[in-house]
Amino acid sequence: MTSKGLFFKYMRENTKQRLWSVALTALLCFFLFPVLTALETSIMLRPDNLSKDLSVEAALAEAKLKLTNEMLHMYSIQNAMLVFILIVTAVVLAASGFSYLHSKKKTDFFHSLPISREMLYTVTCLDGILYLAVPYLVFLLVAGVMLQVKGAPFLWGTLLIGYVQHMCFFTLVYMTVVLAVILTGNLIVGLLGTGVFFSWGPGVAAVISTYFSEYFMTFYDNGNFLLRWCERTSPVFWYGTATGSDHPTRMAVIALAVAALLFGLGMFLYRKRPSEAAGRAMAFKVSEPVIRFLLVVPITLFSGMIFRSILNDDIWTVFGLICGLLITSCLIEIIYHFDFKSLFAHKRQLAISAVAVAAIFLGFRLDVAGYDSYLPNADKVAYAGIYCDALDNNAAGAYHVTPRMYRDGYSVGMEWASQGDVADKMQISDEDGIRVLREIGAQGIETASRQRKHLNGGQDWMSEADLDSRYDSIVLSWHLNNGKTVYRNYRTINVSELREQLDSIYENQSYKLGMYPVLSLQADDAAGINYKEEEDCSHVKLPDEQTKAALLAAYQKELMALTPDMRREEMPIAEIQFKTNEMQAMIDVIRKNGGYYDTFNQFDYYPIYPSFQETIAILKQCGTEVGSKVTPENTEKIVLQYQGGKIPEDQLAPADTELGKRQREYLQNNSRREVTITDPEQIAEILANSASDDMVQINQMAEAYQGINIAVYVSGTEDTGAVSEDDLRDSVNSMEENEIGQTYTVDAGQNVLYDGEYAADYEMDESGQYGIYQRSFRYGKVPEFVKSTFGLTPELMRLNRVFAY
Question: CA 608, 745, 547 angle in degrees (round to 5)?
Answer without folding.
Answer: 55
